[in-house]
Amino acid sequence: MTDLKVAVVGSGVIGLTTAIELQKSIRNANVSILSDGFNEDTTSWVAAGIFRPGGEFKGENKEITQKWIDDSWYYWKNIQDSRYGAEAGVTELSGYTFSNRSENAVRNPYIEKLVPIYRPATETELTSLCPQKWKFGSYYSTLLIENSIYLPWATEKFKADGGTVIHQRVDSLPSLGEKYDIVVNCAGLGSQTLCNDDELVPVRGQVIKVDAPWLKMFFYADSSTYIIPGFKSVTLGGCRELGSYDLNPDKYVSLGIRERCENLVPSLKGAREIRTLVGLRPYRKSVRVEKETKICMCGKKVKIVHHYGHGGYGVTAAPGTSLHAVRLVKEMWAGNSKL
Ligand SMILES: Cc1cc2nc3c(=O)[nH]c(=O)nc-3n(C[C@H](O)[C@H](O)[C@H](O)COP(=O)(O)OP(=O)(O)OC[C@H]3O[C@@H](n4cnc5c(N)ncnc54)[C@H](O)[C@@H]3O)c2cc1C
Ligand SMILES: *[C@@H]1O[C@H](CO)[C@@H](O)[C@H](O)[C@H]1NC(C)=O
Ligand SMILES: *[C@@H]1O[C@H](CO)[C@@H](O)[C@H](O)[C@H]1NC(C)=O
């Protein structure tokens, strides 16, 4: 017998992680995912998937943000340590961040105490690891979550645990109240229209996935340059274009990415291109994890939990913000006489 009927809107890394956590932590919850795009039709699919929150990643306050990041780290780490780590697309990855700008550009207060290794690059690393010379650098060890593996894995796990997946575009969140007790909105950039949220803006990113299995470390450098080895390819990036909705690859952006990455790591000159991908990061000054009650056309009060706006760090932070969203679902449900 099932008690609570939950609709999760969206099947990116945020929706899927939320849906799985709802199943895990609410007994007798019947969870359905409603989404108009899956796998390669999501922003999540485009991500390089490195665990690396940027300074602009923020929740309501510092404590909440750090808790999201800590929870996320241990969640991914647990999967990586388990016997199904590789099957789920989670692995460890180490590498360098270099900069000529400032010491701050190569630091990461969010994760320096969390990850197993985070240290300044040595003089030798700064001047002779790559042909270019750098003034500042850090070496650290972190995790990589390959969404082209994790999303299908999570979908199968969700279904195996009794979840329902429905291919459907949602035009109104309150209208779902007719069939479901609680709605969790994980629609990413789709929340712009679903919630009339003008604080949510796209930050366009373009990456080139190349075949370079000889590369085993990640590299970050100035001008949004990155080289990130995954399970199936190496991701070369990137760019950050605020307010652009263009999903077509731009050939001049690609030329720039190639040049910057090849200058950083010249062996990439031999790397065959697999695909160029574009994604619109759902950026919001503060990630929204929040309860709301709305009245639907049918007159019923509809309980909604919003969970979107992760910008460039949704893979990193999905577990932490999902655990938070699930707590809000429980709070809303506890407000019912049923519990
Ligand atoms: C180039 C690039 C590189 C990145 N690299 C990293 C990285 O290394 N590490 C990291 O942590 N993050 C990275 N990110 C960021 C990360 O991809 C996003 O933060 C994350 O994918 C957001 O997940 P999401 O589930 O909210 O959105 P999405 O993946 O976009 O999912 C939204 C879902 O909602 C559905 N939807 C939307 N509207 C509706 C509607 N009206 N009705 C029904 N369904 C709807 C969509 O179909 C989709 O399934 C990168 C992003 C880009 C673009
Ligand atoms: C869960 O909900 C879905 C969709 O509303 C329904 O098809 C399914 O039968 C329900 N499952 C259970 C076990 O009640
Ligand atoms: C960084 O600065 C140093 C010293 O000014 C310079 O020699 C070097 O070429 C710069 N590196 C890059 C990648 O621009």
TrEMBL record:
Its cofactor is FAD. GO terms for molecular function: D-amino-acid oxidase activity; FAD binding. Residues 5-325 form the FAD dependent oxidoreductase domain. Keywords: FAD, Flavoprotein, Oxidoreductase. One of its GO terms (biological process) is D-amino acid catabolic process. FAD binds at residues 43-44, 170, 311-316. The keyword tRNA processing does not apply. One of its GO terms (cellular component) is cytoplasm. InterPro entries: DAO (IPR023209), FAD-dep_OxRdtase (IPR006076). It holds the Pfam family DAO. D-dopa binds at residues 226, 281, 312. Belongs to the DAMOX/DASOX family. This is FAD dependent oxidoreductase domain-containing protein. It comes from Psylliodes chrysocephalus.
